[in-house]
UniProtKB/TrEMBL annotation:
Family designation: Belongs to the drug/metabolite transporter (DMT) superfamily. Small multidrug resistance (SMR) (TC 2.A.7.1) family. Gdx/SugE subfamily.
Record flagged with keyword Transcription: no
A Pfam cross-reference name: Multi_Drug_Res
Source organism phylogeny: Bacteria, Pseudomonadati, Pseudomonadota, Gammaproteobacteria, Moraxellales
Name of the protein this chain belongs to: Guanidinium exporter
PANTHER family cross-referenced by the UniProt entry: GUANIDINIUM EXPORTER, SMR FAMILY PROTON-DEPENDENT DRUG EFFLUX TRANSPORTER SUGE
Length: 105
């Protein structure tokens, strides 16, 4: 159950990161509210998952989901470049997440 909660926390991190971009420095009300709400939800779910998961694994996987997910949203939604080097970096992050999960089981 904690792993599912952690994945949801990571997805919420993607939502708040994207909303923060849309808030234009917290100058737009609706995206700013979405950012704050999902930030609080993401941190709360992370805290809940950390009750049973190791700190290193939980925090690393949470930030990795947020980083890779935000990277993909940047490419798919915001039209950011998908260069070979950036794609390699994302693959390395995902590899690290898989290794972290496997090593903490």
């Amino acid at each position: 159950m904690a792993w599912i909660v952690l994945i949801l926390a990571g997805i919420f991190e993607i939502v708040w990161a994207y909303s923060m971009k849309l808030s234009e420095g917290f100058t737009r009300l609706t995206p700013s509210i979405i950012t704050i709400v999902f930030m609080v939800l993401s941190f709360a779910l992370l805290a809940y998952a950390m009750r049973t998961l190791p700190l290193g694994a939980a925090y690393t996987i949470w930030t990795g989901i947020g980083a890779v997910g935000s990277f993909l949203i940047g490419i798919w939604v915001l039209g950011e470049p998908a260069t070979a080097l950036r794609m390699l970096a994302a693959v390395l992050i995902i590899s690290g997440l898989v290794l972290m999960k496997v090593s903490s089981s």
